[in-house]
Amino acid sequence: NAxxxxxxxxQVLKTGQSMTLQCAQxxxxxxxxxxxxxxxxxxxxxxxxxxxxxxxxxxxxxxxxVSRSTTEDFPLRLLSAAPSQTSVYFCASxxxxxxxxxxxxxxxxLTVT
Amino acid sequence: xxxxxxxxxxxxxxEGESSSLNCSYTVSxxxxxxxxxxxxxxxxxxxxxxxxxGEEKEKERLKATLTKKESFLHITAPxxxxxxTYLCAxxxxxxLIFGTGTRLQVFP
Lengths: 113, 108
Fold this sequence. Notes:
Largest sheet of chain B: 6 strands, mixed
Mean pLDDT of chain A: 94
Low-confidence stretches of chain B: none
Mean pLDDT of chain B: 94
Helix content of chain B: under 10%
Oligomer: heterodimer
Number of strands of chain A: 11
Structural class of chain A: mainly beta
Distance between the termini of chain B: 41 Å
Number of helices of chain A: 0
Distance between the termini of chain A: 36 Å
Largest sheet of chain A: 7 strands, mixed
Structural class of chain B: mainly beta
Radius of gyration of chain B: 13 Å
Largest interface: A-B, 26 and 25 residues
């Protein structure tokens, strides 16, 4: 099992550009989520999905879109990048809705200039 | 408002010097308390889940305990390889709420 994979590992964008962060898991997990991690702020939930076709907003959803067309994939789209979106992004999955433990990907470090 | 607070923010220990990390929480309907370890440049790695007050879990030099308002991660005789950031999170309905972590450094 590869677990949770994320691509790319690093990305630099200019303000206003759009891009998609990819996330995939091969554990047949129902629940997937996206977090951003900033110094001193901890992990903050952006969006999550309790199953294919179902998504919901987390704590900091503005500027991001998600969709879940398959169980395995959960891409995160930045519509128009802003410097405030400079962060490290983590995708995570769990067997079902928390309280089950989540397994994290290696992260994508995004810089918006 | 659901909240998780970890202390201290940073902790420096000599190898073999035991200590504890604290995670206090306020949540409407606790559905599990989770401990993770995060190494620099990597994603968090799951350590423990605790579900009810009085529960304890152990793994090598780590032991996690839970009360109704807080959890402790006890580190016994730490080694330099235990250096990492330790994250605490609480489960609430359909999401996890994370604390900001304790950065642990263990010196030989």
